Amino acid sequence: MRELTVWAPHARSVDLLLPDARHPMSSGEDGHWHVTVEAGPGSTYAFSLDGGDPRPDPRGLRLPDGPHGWSQLFDPGDFDWSDGQWSGLELQGSVIYELHVGTFTPGGTLDAAAERLDHLVDLGVGLVELMPLAPFPGTRGWGYDGVAPYAVHETYGGPAALQRFVDAAHARGLGVCLDVVHNHLGPDGNYLGEFGPYLTDTHHTPWGSALNLDAPDSDPVRRWVLDNVQQWFRDFHVDALRLDAVHELHDDRAVHVLEEMSREVDELAAREGRRMWLIAESDRNDPRTVTPRGRGNAVGGLGVHAQWADDVHHALHVALTGETQGYYADFADPGALEKAMRSPFFHDGTWSTFRGRRHGRPVDTASVPGWRFVASLQTHDQVGNRATGDRISASVPVGLLACGAALLLISPWTPMLFMGEEWGASTPWAYFTDHTDAELGEAVRRGRRAEFASHGWDENDVPDPQHPSTFEASKLDWAEAGEGDHARLLQWYRSLIRLRRERRDLHDAHLDLVRTRYDAASGMFILQRGEHQLLVNLGEKPARADAYGTVLLSWEPGVELLDGALEVPGQSAVLVGV
After folding, report:
1. Whether residue 244 lies in the annotated active site
2. Does 50 score more than 80 pLDDT?
């Protein structure tokens, strides 16, 4: 026998539907409805509100027929884990690797991705970040329009496949981070509003109504979010969650939902004896996101363990490509790259031309460790939201790719790579969708092309997000990794990550010890990390710089340290240490 429960505070009646029976449910004073029936793992079920059409369970763990179908009972406790000795990993010193399951391998499943884990071990990364897995209509998509946060998209293999992937990763010493979206729900297959006030018009997001975190009847909605967070750590053994766009988690309560979330995760980690991490994506440039919570009744920060630092990406991108359109304009400042290597927020109370106002808050670099900020050269956003999904490898020569890798991996931040970056993948990674609602699909197609046409693009050059070829073209070509400059760049990444791991200076988290010097005229940028110097020549001509110690790694061969100086070839990088 199994008890099934659903929250539907405004329904007059709720029935549990099984394939061969309809079971009336009993209501409780808190808006939850209950029924006990004979049903085991694999049984399909749905709910009918006030005699209406079948609807999937808002807390359902499996949707074998997609968001418009019935839920299926899934018991996560049935999996035979082999990671009993796994105690998690330290975020400090780790390198993150972001991947999209559907385009990471030709197979496009979690099981197929698990077959490539040895590549990531050899590369030296520590944490594998999976883009969202929540189900959405259709088979192809980025995952940010998911509508069932408790479940795993069937195209990727469903919830059991995620358990297999995590177990396989832990067996190889890799942690797993899952990208989750709680700030909004997708437009198609979203039935939560029929169950109760999951969304509110009190606040709005760029995607419509906000999740109801502080309006009337919001307590069960917050619990729905917090229980979902615990589910991934407890039942699926993930090591970290990447929290999408937390600036759109609108919450005017005295205790923000992120603070409540961080407290519950820390308590769960203590009970489980395993490290667990929350990593926020935030547009606020506010260090309070990663400031520890206050003790007792003292007011502190939100207590999230780390956050993305997009300003670092922007500074690196402009330095490597010279692009200055849109939000890149501010980062054409000659001091942007220096600042981004010392402080995660270029905008720390400074004027942002893109926003038309001041933005951000300073980071106390004497007390906030650098590992709390995740930096990148490329991400799904920064590649996929370009008109054609072109990677940085399509814009700059391989020498500058090597320069960017060195700056990122020798920086004081927690570096994150985007799949294929390590060999300079030539395949694009475009915006692709598979909306089964024809009108929605057409609206996305027209909107995408109109957006870029307004910025001077020929709309015929913008890939059709709904066409299967856009998705297929975005899949990695693994054969490239062993060829020519791709193989050379891959070895460069491996060497940089190895040195970062082995040498204390190169993963030291003390920001106040970082020193930078940039000569814009020659293109020479010097990053000092303790007794190590990274010399990066972004210019085309060789440039001479003072240095001391031994050449540990050089993109171009034959670079020697003579009489306290060395000549760095154009578009090249050299790491020197003692």
Report:
1. yes
2. yes
**What's the token pair of residue 226?**
């917090």
Token digits of residue 76: 């996560």
Enter the CATH code of domain 86-239+247-277+295-304. Answer: 3.20.20.80
Q: What are the tens digits of pLDDT across the range 379-438?
A: 999 999 999 999 999 999 999 999 999 999 999 999 999 999 999 999 999 999 999 999
pLDDT at position 36 over 80: yes
Query: How many other β-carbons are positioned within 10 Å of the β-carbon of residue 481?
Result: 17
Structural contact between residues 533 and 547, judged by C-beta atoms closer than 8 angstroms: yes
Domain ranges of the chain: 2-78, 86-239+247-277+295-304, 510-577
Among candidate residues 15, 154, 281, 480, the one labeled active-site is: 281
Contacts of 201 (CB under 8 A, 6+ apart): 209
Known catalytic residue at 281: yes
Single pTM value for the model: 0.97
Tell how strand 524-529 and strand 373-376 pair up: unpaired
Q: Which two tokens stand for residue 98?
A: 């972001």
Are 355 and 329 in contact by the 8 Å Cβ rule? The answer is: no
Q: What is the pLDDT of residue 29?
A: 81
> Which are the contacts of 398, defined by CB distance < 8 A and separation ≥ 6?
424, 485, 488, 489
Annotated catalytic residue within 154, 188, 214, 244: 244
- Cα distances (Å, whole numbers) of residue 361 to 251, 289, 330, 358, 417: 20, 11, 16, 10, 26
Domain spanning 2-78: which CATH class is it, in words? mainly beta
pLDDT in tens, 317-347: 999 999 999 999 999 998 999 999 999 999 9
Q: How far apart are CA 394 and CA 401, in angstroms?
A: 10
Q: Would you say the CATH fold of 510-577 matches that of 86-239+247-277+295-304?
A: no
Distances (CA, A) of 345 to 79, 281, 403: 43, 13, 21
SS (H, E, C) 93-115: CCCEEEECHHHHCCCCCHHHHHC
In sequence order, what E strands does 339-409 have? 350-352, 357-359, 373-376
Q: Nearest CA to 494 among 423, 401, 396? A: 423
Measured CA to CA, the distance from residue 403 to residue 556 in angstroms comes to 11
Which top CATH class is 510-577? mainly beta
pLDDT above 80: residue 298: no
